[in-house]
Amino acid sequence: MSATSILPAPQPAGAPLAPARHRPALSYELFPARSDVSFERLRTTIAALEQTAPDYVSVTSKTGQGNLDRVLEVTEHLLDATALRPLVHLTSIGSTRAELAAIVGSLLDRGVRGVLALRGDQPEGHRLDDDEVPFARPLVELIRAVERERTAALAGGRLSVGVAAYPHRHPESPTAQHDLEVLMAKERAGADFAITQVFFDPAAYETLVERARTAGIGLPIVPGFVPTTNPRRLARLAELSGVQAPRELLHSLETARDDAERHRIGVAHTAGLAARVLDAGAPGLHLFTFNRHVEALDVLDALDLDRWSAPTAGDLR
After folding, report:
1. Secondary structure, 3-state, 241-275
2. Could you tell me the pTM of the whole model?
3. Nearest to residue 145, comparing CAs of 100, 187, 110?
């Protein structure tokens, strides 16, 4: 009995090799459910998103691991009931080194091989000086230290460690140059890739990548998008991130006849923004879904990612 080969058929001698084509990377962000009822709805969303074969699905967590049980609930569902690969958010603020190391070890034991290392939002009155791991850079170092201790169990493999990047200045950062230096430090600590905060101007993303490359930062920078169908959500995002949606977009959404028109406007705007950065060479896209799959899937339908499949990596990869 012979095993079925998974290798491509041999090419005739002297025949040119066909270039490999790669769809841009695709990923989604999910929130853990707050209740058993909302978890059932989340399962429906996960099943719908799985049909698009994303490269990974990120799972957010509260600062200080306040919802760790719910994070693990979603993570275990992804691992046990789907073919999806989870990228689990880990925030350092308010946690000790021992607590963070234990969480990383627990994730590895469950089969997680992707972690997004974040400082997390700073609660009012919290002092970073009181934290053992006050920033994302030392958190990346801690993750890599746990990984080294588990090398045999990982069969020589590696964790994929992601970090955040900011097309617009971080609200707590003194300058955009400081943001760039922080990103460089995270890469040197062992980060593999970055996902951006939201933006609405493709030039902001392109400028970030160009400045990063000029500074010697080589990690892929994946643009993050929010389907812009809900003006209240955009207002809330502006409060949290300081990034304002275009006034014309907000006006169109607020004066739309009904939800269906708002949906069409928002999907078209998001797809157009994503298309522009993919045209510029972005390595993929990350959709913040807010646990809703319809908007995300409609954005993908409008994009048709195969349009950007290419035999070589994009300029901004």
Report:
1. HCCCCCHHHHHHHHCCCCHHHHHHHHHHHHHHHHH
2. 0.90
3. 100
pLDDT tens by residue, the chain, 317 residues = 445 555 656 666 666 655 566 789 999 999 999 888 899 999 999 999 999 999 999 999 877 677 899 999 999 999 999 999 999 999 998 899 999 999 999 999 999 999 999 998 777 776 777 789 999 999 999 999 999 999 888 887 789 999 999 999 888 889 999 999 999 999 999 999 999 999 999 999 999 999 999 999 999 999 999 999 998 889 888 887 788 899 999 999 999 999 999 999 999 999 999 999 999 999 999 999 999 999 999 999 999 898 898 654 444 55
In whole angstroms, how far apart are CA 221 and each of 90, 189, 282? 19, 16, 7
Q: How far apart are CA 283 and CA 220, in angstroms?
A: 7
Residue with tokens 């491509």: 8
- Give residue for tokens 């958190």: 139
Q: In what order do the strands lie in the sheet with 224-225?
A: 221-222, 193-196, 160-165, 114-118, 86-91, 56-59, 25-30, 284-288, 224-225
